[in-house]
What does this fold into?
Amino acid sequence: MSPRTDYSSYAIPNSELVKTLKLNKHPEGGYFAETDRQVDQVPSPFAGQALRPLATSIYYLLTPDEPNGVIHMNKSATMHVLHQGRAEYTLVTPGSPPKVERKVMGPNIHAGEVLQLLVPTGVWKMSRLLEEDLASTSTESSNDHWGCLITEVVFPGFAWEDHAFLTKEGLEELLGADSSQAKELSKYVKA
It folds into this structure.
């Protein structure tokens, strides 16, 4: 018996998720709602020992009308946990040479999709809905049944002071102004 490969169910419509989970537009793209901010604080080794919550968590949703985030970095590590849908994550680890990898968060573990994704400290990341999934959204009602809902847990907890958006100049410096990867990813930097 061969493994099942069709895992395309999308149980909760986007309109219901936005309404019931009280999601708002996120500055990185998509929608979000903070679900927890631990009261206990710890010195963050990634922010000069500044005190940060032990952890924070959010729901994060990409939809056909908000299909991608922009490239950004957290000083803290971030664990992404899938609830429903699929999204491709592009991760850029600085170095010489920089490492660019793509991972798909989705339910089809037989095709290499992952249910959890750890993004370590100091790694640039962005997420987007897959082109083949967006091609399936021809009507408003089908738009409501495609997307990706995850939980993100940041540890030590999220603080805007520990966050950065990648600029076009920063992307060109990181990957090389003439690189095909820089040209491809340039549409995902914050304007």
In short: The helical segments are 14-20, 131-134, 140-143, 168-175, 180-185. The radius of gyration is 17 Å.
